[in-house]
């Protein structure tokens, strides 16, 4: 199939995708928000008070979802800390820290540690280990510290 036709088919599917439509309606930057929502509803991962690091966060729909889950402080704001990190720029999200960099690089790690230590000083519980299952294919991904 010619490349032009493939692009046209992709565009048609994308425009008609129910999750793309829902994301537009609910203000999410990507349909990926609903993958995280599904995992979260099943595994009860995200709770107020947590420190959440979103590695590879751009365009930001996972950080937006996490932000919505931690919201609810009187007068606005969130209970917890969210840090997005990506090589690409990300448009700001209220209450979400953002580091632009490569998460394999020392400099990104240093910036991340600086925000994390500030969060712990302000009463956040250090996270000892997190388990995630990511992606539509339900590939298992585990990270620990
Ligand atoms: C599929 S997108 C993430 C979408 C995001 N979860 C959302 O819901 O909006 C993957 C992101 O990972 C970023 N990325 C890949 N490798 C990276 C690295 N080594 N350091 C930082 N960001 C990285 C890419 O730039 C890309 O923006």
Separate helix tally: 5
- Look at the helices and sheets and give the structural class: alpha/beta
Report the major sheet.
3 strands, parallel
Terminal Cα span: 47 Å
* CATH architecture tag: 3-Layer(aba) Sandwich
Would you give the CATH topology? Rossmann fold
The helicity comes to 40-55%
The tally of strands reads 5
Radius of gyration: 17 Å
Shape: globular
Q: What topology, given as strand order, has the largest sheet?
A: 1-2-3
Proportion of residues in extended strands: 15-25%
What's the mean pLDDT score?
85
Report low-confidence residues grouped into runs of 5 or more.
128-145
CATH class category name: Alpha Beta
Element order, helices and strands? HHHEHEEHEE
Small-molecule components bound = S-adenosylmethionine
Defining key terms:
41% helix, 145 residues, three-stranded parallel beta sheet, alpha/beta, two-stranded antiparallel sheet, disordered C terminus
Protein described:
By secondary structure, this protein is of the alpha/beta class. The protein has one domain: 3-Layer(aba) Sandwich (Rossmann fold), CATH 3.40.50. The chain has five helices and five strands; from the N terminus they run H-H-H-E-H-E-E-H-E-E. The strands form two sheets. The protein has a three-stranded parallel beta sheet with strand order 1-2-3, sandwiched between helices. A two-stranded antiparallel ribbon has the order 4-5. Helix 4 (61-70) links the parallel strand 1 and strand 2. It is globular and about 55 Å long. Mean pLDDT is 85; it is low at 128-145. Bound molecules: S-adenosylmethionine. S-adenosylmethionine binds at residues 29-30, 32, 56-62, 85-88, 102-104.
